[in-house]
Structure formats: structure tokens, C-alpha cells
Automatic annotation (TrEMBL):
Key words of the record: Isomerase, tRNA processing
Gene3D superfamilies: Pseudouridine synthase I, catalytic domain, C-terminal subdomain, Pseudouridine synthase I, catalytic domain, N-terminal subdomain
Complex formation: Homodimer.
Function: Formation of pseudouridine at positions 38, 39 and 40 in the anticodon stem and loop of transfer RNAs.
Top-level lineage group: Bacteria
Lineage, opening ranks: Bacteria, Bacillati, Bacillota, Bacilli, Lactobacillales
Keyword tRNA processing: yes
Annotated source species: Secundilactobacillus odoratitofui DSM 19909 = JCM 15043
The protein's name in its UniProt record: tRNA pseudouridine synthase A
InterPro entries: PsdUridine_synth_cat_dom_sf, PsdUridine_synth_TruA, PsdUridine_synth_TruA_a/b_dom, PsdUridine_synth_TruA_C, TruA/RsuA/RluB/E/F_N
Catalytic activity: uridine(38/39/40) in tRNA = pseudouridine(38/39/40) in tRNA
One Gene Ontology term of the molecular function aspect: tRNA pseudouridine(38-40) synthase activity
Length: 258
């Protein structure tokens, strides 16, 4: 599914807050004629308030049979305009949208205009200083591999360990839209990890950090040294991988790291 995160307080259900999970739960149960017990939605992971999704994955147990296409059309006819079900697939009883994940791909869009564009403010971050994309990509290679990302995780994380593996990390200049487009693919990401990594990389690109500073952040393991967390508005969950989707990186995130 896809959603515009602007008017959501994140994915996870919260009391008296509009969330992706609560909206989808309401619609799924309405479609199933409000069964008892209620149908529970399981997502591949949480996205924070203001974060968007191009390819979030959820699963639930429907108490009666519908074709995949009728399910997709039925849900979309009842969902609000800032959510869309892109594809429906009937899966085995032992499939789990969260625990069967083998990887995730995130995109971050950073507008480079002198001032914040009112028409982009909900869909990009903003950086008005000159940047060197080659420096950013050189530094981004230090993110690739398995590392202790303690310097890149916000307080409040519930992860058992801060070790994660990143398979791909890079940045390109979208000249047509005057944006930097960052992309990261890994076996899992910590709380605010992508937004903190982008904050470090744009500072490296602007020359206010040395190009090898990520290696230094691994050594000191201090979140304060990473400094910046870029806004949620530029972050998109692009794709969620499951075993068989990507034969090069087939391993699920170990339970201790979830």
C-alpha cells in the first residue's frame, strides 16, 4: 500500500490519533461486517508521523473469501484519499508481514532551493547550501556493510542491538526538480536511522564534516556527535523485501535485531 504521511501520526495505532493502522483497521473490519474478535492489522514496520510510503506491506486474516482484485477495489473504495492499496495477494497462513521481512529500501528527497518551497514542504526536506554529490557518495560507501549504528539511532529505540547491515547507500542529483535523492537498502533500520544518516551526509557534502567522519561516528558511538535529524517529510518507505524477492540478499533480520 501507499500513503501520504502528512496527516497521519505515524503508522502505529495511538489513542485518539489518526494513524495508518487505525484507518486501515477500521476499513478492513467494516468490509468484514465488524466481526468479533476484530481483525488485527500487522505491518512490515512502523513509519513515523509525516513519513510516506510507496510500498508498505501489511497482512491480516479475513474471515471469508474474496478475490484479490475484489479486495483491492473494495478497500480502495472505502479508504481515505491519502491511502491506496496497490496490490493484494492471498498468502499462506504462516506468512507474517513483519517477521518475514528480509530487507527494506528507503528514499529521502532533499529540496535544494534557496527557500523552502510551499508546494514541497510536506514531501521533501530542505537544504539551501551548496553540496558536493561526489563527496556524499564517497562517504555513503562507509555505511555499506554490517555496523554498530549507535551514533545513528534516536533515543526511544526498542531494538535489542544497534547492529544493522546496509547493502546499498547512495545519492543522486535530480536536476529537473532541484533535489538530492538519497536511497538506502538494508536488512533493517533503527529508529530515525535514515534521517540521521542523511543529516550526516549532507553536512559532509557541504564540507562541514570530513568525508571519512562516518568511520569516526562508528568509533565513538555517540548519537550527539551525529547532530542533525532531517525532517520526516522527505522520507519514503519505497519497498519491503521478502525471501525470494532479492536473491542477492535473502537473509531475514535475526530475531534479536528486530
Amino acid at each position: 500500500m501507499a500513503y501520504d504521511g502528512t496527516n497521519f501520526a505515524g503508522f502505529q495505532r495511538q489513542p485518539k490519533m489518526r494513524t495508518v493502522e487505525s484507518e486501515l483497521t477500521r476499513v478492513v473490519n467494516k468490509m468484514a461486517k465488524n466481526p468479533t474478535p476484530a481483525i488485527v492489522i500487522y505491518g512490515s514496520g512502523r513509519t513515523d508521523a509525516g513519513v510516506h510510503a510507496l510500498g508498505q506491506v501489511v497482512h491480516f486474516d479475513m474471515p471469508f473469501n474474496l478475490t484479490e482484485e475484489n479486495m483491492r477495489k473494495g478497500l480502495n473504495s472505502m479508504l481515505p484519499v491519502d491511502m491506496e492499496v496497490l496490490k493484494v495477494k492471498i498468502v499462506s497462513d504462516d506468512f507474517h508481514a513483519r517477521y518475514d521481512v528480509s530487507g527494506k529500501r528507503y528514499v529521502y528527497r532533499m529540496d535544494l532551493g534557496e527557500f523552502r518551497n510551499p508546494f514541497k514542504r510536506n514531501y521533501t526536506g530542505h537544504w539551501k547550501f551548496p553540496v558536493d554529490v561526489d563527496r556524499i557518495n564517497q562517504a555513503a560507501q562507509d555505511l555499506v556493510g554490517e555496523h554498530d549504528f549507535t551514533s545513528f539511532v534516536a533515543s526511544g529505540s526498542s531494538a535489542r542491538t544497534n547492529y544493522r547491515t546496509i547493502y546499498e547507500a547512495g545519492c543522486r542529483l535530480d536536476e529537473a526538480n532541484n533535489e538530492l535523492v538519497f536511497e538506502f537498502y538494508g536488512n533493517g533500520f533503527l529508529y530515525n536511522q535514515v534521517r540521521i544518516m542523511v543529516g550526516v551526509l549532507v553536512e559532509i557534502g557541504a564540507g562541514t564534516r570530513p568525508v571519512d567522519d562516518i568511520q569516526n561516528l562508528y568509533r565513538i558511538n555517540d548519537r550527539r556527535a551525529a547532530r542533525r535529524t532531517v525532517p520526516a517529510s522527505g522520507l519514503y518507505l519505497k519497498h519491503v523485501y521478502y525471501e525470494g524477492d532479492d536473491p542477492e540478499h535473502p537473509t531475514k533480520l535475526p530475531k534479536r535485531q528486530r
